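Most newcomers find our protein records easier to grasp once they have seen one. Each record describes a single protein and holds just a pair of labelled lines. A learned vocabulary of local backbone shapes supplies the integers on the structure line. Nothing more is needed to start thinking about how sequence determines fold. The record below serves as our worked example for the rest of this section.
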Amino acid sequence: MRKGTLKWDDLRVFLAVVREGRLQSAGKLLGLDPTTAGRRIAALETALGQRLFERTADGYVPTEAGRELVAPAQAMEAQAAALLGAATGKAEGLSGTVRINAPDGVTNYLLVDACEALVRDNPDLQVQVVAVPRVFSMSQGEADLTITVSPPTTGRLTVRKIADYRLHLYARADLVAAVGPVRTMEDLRGVRGIGYISDMVFDRELDYYSMIGREGEPALSSNSLITQIRWCLSGYGICILPEFIGRRHAELVELLADDIRLTRSFYLVLHQKDARDDRINRMADVVVRWVRDALTP
């Protein structure tokens, strides 16, 4: 291939490596062996005269030149899908891989149905959900969509508010029955607290244990909301949980509803380069719609 000539097949491999981070998984996605995928990347780098990836122990990380190529490559991907739809007479579907990063409570309780709907309606789409307590680097291609509880204030990002949600104090019903009438927090002084590890809270919007009038660390603490839920469901203590989680579990009862009622928000974050990508925007619309519906009692 002479220098300066770009091939769409090479760009498809480039996008797959950006999304997957490794040649093996990118090749598997496209039906190629890692050696062939590597040759495609090398050919593209030769054609452009620039190094597109840093090869690290953690995989392939886009260089500045690689990051600049993502948006035009995605635009070509969208155009190719549109041309295919026009040629076959079929409505354009979504294809490729989308990676969604969100806190574990969101992935387990709000995104399950949204992801199934995406792949059901788009058979050529692969959805990856990363449930980790941190915001992925959008500019490095670690995630296409990120859901957070605080809008980021730095970076070339597009932020869209999804919805507000409420949190309440919960405990298992038999634990409450053993305690007796609960009229104030003082009535719960002998009950263990459950919450986040204070120095590992990934977002200060989630640091609300002190708001219920308790000092120090909870007796049981974890950086995972799912672990906190399991403790609460086992009757090991009281825990502040999102309302959309509490109402899913009949064995939990809400405590001090008039006194402890917090409001937080979910935000959908995209990199600015992806905000112009019709494919990513369509996926974002589906995720927002399903999350909003799931938050509705």
